[in-house]
Amino acid sequence: MTQQSTTRQEAPASIGIALLGAGVVGGGVAHSIGAHAAEYERRIGRRLELRQILVRNPEKVRGTSVDPGIVTTDFDQILSDPKIQIVVEVMGGEEPAYRYLCQTLESRRYAVTANKEVMAKHGPELLSLARRNGVDILFEASVGGGIPLIAPLKRDLIANEITSLRAIVNGTTNYILTRMSSEGIDFADALEQAQALGYAEADPTNDVEGIDAAYKLCILASLAFRTAVFPADVYHEGITRLRANDFRYARELGYAIKLLAIGRRLAGGSVEVRVHPVLLREDEPLSKVDGVFNAVELEGDLTGLVLFQGQGAGSFPTSSAVLADVIDIAREIGLGQSGRAMEPYSASQQIRPFEELESRHYLRLRVPDRAGVLSKICGVLGDQYGISISDIIQKETSQEDQSTEIVIMTHAAREASMRAALMELEQLPVVNEIGNFIRVETPR
Ligand SMILES: NC(=O)c1ccc[n+]([C@@H]2O[C@H](COP(=O)([O-])OP(=O)(O)OC[C@H]3O[C@@H](n4cnc5c(N)ncnc54)[C@H](OP(=O)(O)O)[C@@H]3O)[C@@H](O)[C@H]2O)c1
Questions:
Q1: How far apart are alpha carbons 5 and 20 in whole angstroms?
Q2: Residue 231's CB: how many other CB atoms inside 10 A?
Q3: Which residues line ligand 1 (CB under 6 A)?
Q4: What is the model's pTM?
């Protein structure tokens, strides 16, 4: 990570800030700038002056931290204020946030963003734009809310070769999985509870389909493996197929079920990046991260395993990360320095196709309760696709239709073989239903 040469400039008495968005995060940022004004001034040596706040609806009633006198709906008004030096984007979504960030950097202002979608899709381009204009864009709050992750990856772990990253980075899905596990309820009921408590949005697609976690993985993996990773590179699968029985059976086998974002540096210089539910051994630290908490486990060649854990969302935890970036930039401005933007990574390393993944699998099948069924299933898995079985466990039997549920644990098999085998199993007359299949995560 090289740094551009710094230049000394005359430092102003206060640092002008514009906030794009005054919602959950923006409200928290505005509150803290007001509540901790004197303390921040002591730390920075300059006063932080919130000069304009951009919103969509100026009529909305907001907390006392948001001064209605500085609310605007016109971004050009922010660009035309020469006293604004830092633009803090906490509005979310790709557009117009991306366009406003480009305009901010082109006007040689610093940018701070909490926007994982924009950073995942356009991070390298925005970093280049910042460098070209002698400013910076910081994005600590884009992953893991209040947990310090971006700065440690950029600085404290810089001497390491990061070989692996495994993360729980979506609090909504982790909350849902925790409820499914602890209460024995199905996905739909747990989602309803999460929505009632405000942990899941009315349209939860981005969270429950693993899209949000994939954006965050792009950002973490780009920094950890020093190669540009974009959303199209990340295989992602959500949690909607999971059922209460999966949690029960997994527990009996000594596993928890978690939605993990996984990145690994592979021999030969490629990397793998994927988001999907996994069976995770119960003695692994990540399997004990419950509720809305997030955690990121990194393995460096010098540090060994490092675990970051904390509140991955929420007004104050997230504004802590946003304000850390603001204070960092304000100090640099105070010192008369500029142009520290990190060098953007190019797509220097290959992304391994997901079909080449090798992993163990858990399969839950409903089959007729009669002799000869297992030999046919084993024939497809073993003889046709070379997938060897480590355990077969018979579970619930239904007297109603004389069927039984079985769980099969396989040894490591290629993703492509497993998918082909599942398609074949689906056609077998001795298979009533493939209830689920979940990859088993094994530490390397
Ligand atoms: N919430 C969290 O815990 C959390 C955690 C980590 C990162 N983040 C990220 O932080 C960002 C903000 O999240 P949030 O939860 O604070 O969102 P939010 O509560 O929905 O607030 C969004 C704010 O942006 C304004 N806004 C949206 N679109 C706009 C537009 N086109 N023009 C002008 N203003 C616009 C809204 O204005 P109105 O108020 O007028 O509608 C609102 O004030 C997102 O990128 C999110 O991913 C959030």
A1: 29
A2: 15
A3: 21-26, 54-57, 60, 90-92, 96, 114-116, 141, 145, 313-314, 318
A4: 0.96
